[in-house]
Amino acid sequence: MPDCTQEAAYIDGGGVRGFLHLPDGDPVASLALTHGAGSNCTAKLLVDVATAWSAHGIAVLRFDLAFRQARESGPPHPSKAPGDRDSVRDAVTYLRDRVPAPVLVGGHSYGGRQASMAVAEDNDLAAGLLLLSYPLHPPGKPGKARTAHLPDIEIPTLSVAGTKDPFATPTELREAIGLIPAQTSFVEVTGAGHDLSAHKHRTAERSLDAAVALFGIDVDTATTL
Predict the structure, then answer these.
(1) What architecture (CATH level 2) is domain 9-215?
(2) Long-range contacts of 144-152 (CB under 8 A, 24+ apart)
(3) Residue-wise pLDDT tens digits, 75-106
(4) Cα-atom radius of gyration of the chain, to the nearest Å?
(5) Per the database record, which ranges form the KANL3/Tex30 alpha/beta hydrolase-like domain (predicted)?
(6) In this structure, is the dihedral angle defined by the CA atoms of residues 31, 17, 48 and 54, taken in order, positive or negative?
(7) Whole-angstrom Cα distance, residue 78 to residue 63?
(8) Residue 224 banded pLDDT, cuts 50, 70, 90
(9) Domain boundaries of the chain, sorted by first residue
């Protein structure tokens, strides 16, 4: 799998495939971060987040879900979703075995949804949850909200979304994460769509600042804006 980030180490084994970004010094935390339904772990948003966060002391593993490991293109199948959640657990375990610091987990769109479901099934899995453009409902179908598992999430949750995201409005997302019985935070990215246009809107830096505040991470430089 090609990748343009030279400082990231390629990982492939034990159910984990992706790229590990390590900070210069000892990590103060780690993040297992995965992709959406139409992408893989080389997605620009994931690379930008991994690069920005690792520059401030957080080890980041951006990894492929099981469906993407099985085939290089095509969407996930609902019947295979449990396998994708196993990928999330494998990635978290990989980091926990190697980084003696709190482990966060999250993803973009479908990846964030699977991470949130994995956490709902096991709240000891991670110390915090990062949702980038959580796909609350299919575009144009707000009545089909994917919220059933949210009340089972008992760890701090950070949600980041654009104001032009067809999968949910900021108001809908704020109401949804309000179902989580733990501390939550919401970052509204004005003008961004579902892809969050990381470079244009400085999504990686803004999400890092919000994560520092919510998760209590003592990064090298707390303010990046």
Answers:
(1) 3-Layer(aba) Sandwich (3.40)
(2) 145/172, 145/176, 146/113, 147/176, 147/179, 149/116, 149/117, 149/120, 150/116, 150/120, 150/176, 150/177, 150/179, 150/180, 151/179, 151/180, 151/181, 152/120, 152/121, 152/123
(3) 999 999 999 999 999 999 999 999 988 999 99
(4) 16
(5) 29-206
(6) positive
(7) 19
(8) very low
(9) 9-215
Identify whether the C-beta of residue 155 lies closer than 8 Å to the C-beta of residue 119.
yes
Residue 87: closest CA among 17, 30, 153: 17
How far, CA to CA in Å, does 222 sit from each of 61, 159, 171, 209, 213?
Answer: 21, 19, 28, 7, 9
Tokens at residue 6, please? 């030279």
Quick: pLDDT tens for 162-202: 999 999 999 999 999 999 999 999 999 999 999 998 778 89
Token readout for 60 is 């980041």
Which H, E and C letters describe the chain, residue by residue?
CCCCCCCCEEEEECCEEEEEECCCCCCCEEEEEECCCCCCCCCHHHHHHHHHHHCCCEEEEEECCHHHHHCCCCCCCHHHHHHHHHHHHHHHHHHHHHCCCCEEEEEECHHHHHHHHHHHHCCCCCCEEEEECCCCCCCCCCCCCCCCCHHHCCCCEEEEEECCCCCCCHHHHHHHHCCCCCCEEEEEECCCCCCCCHHHHCHHHHHHHHHHHHHCCCCCCCCCC
